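Re-run with default settings, no changes from the original entry. Doing this only to confirm the output is reproducible before filing.
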Amino acid sequence: QYLGKHLTFNGGGYPCLGINNQLTQLHRLVIDAKSGQIVDHLNGDKLCCLRENLVISTPSENAYNKAKRKSASSQYYGVKRHLDGGWVVKFKCENKPIYGGYYQREDVAAFVADQLASRYWGKRAKLNGVECPEGFCFDAVKERAVVTTLTSMDL
């Protein structure tokens, strides 16, 4: 039904089709999203509008899949530089802050961030791809440190 329609791009860089004198984002057509529903590209590529790459998301799920800011203090997702030079694992899930601990090494913090992201986000998790650092036992951390949610005052 969309054959012969002209493909263009909106201001956000999303591919669109002109339908009924209105630009409609291609990913919304592919997944048949209703008005108000948020469509997330699982691989983060807004040009990839394959059905298996698209899911209806909550605002929180969609925000987690966004690109990392260039001004971020760490090269890894979910890891932030602490004032004393160490690294803190911290992110939000369903608008609740998640604290994963303080670490001296950035790679250890990134590994822990990956483990927590997988637990909270499953296949939607944007992982850093860090292998378990030598000399670090994540199982021991899980045993003695329960990941807790913090109040906004703790952040």
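Residues 76 and 110 are 6 Å apart (CA to CA). The helical segments are 26-31, 59-64, 106-121, 138-144.
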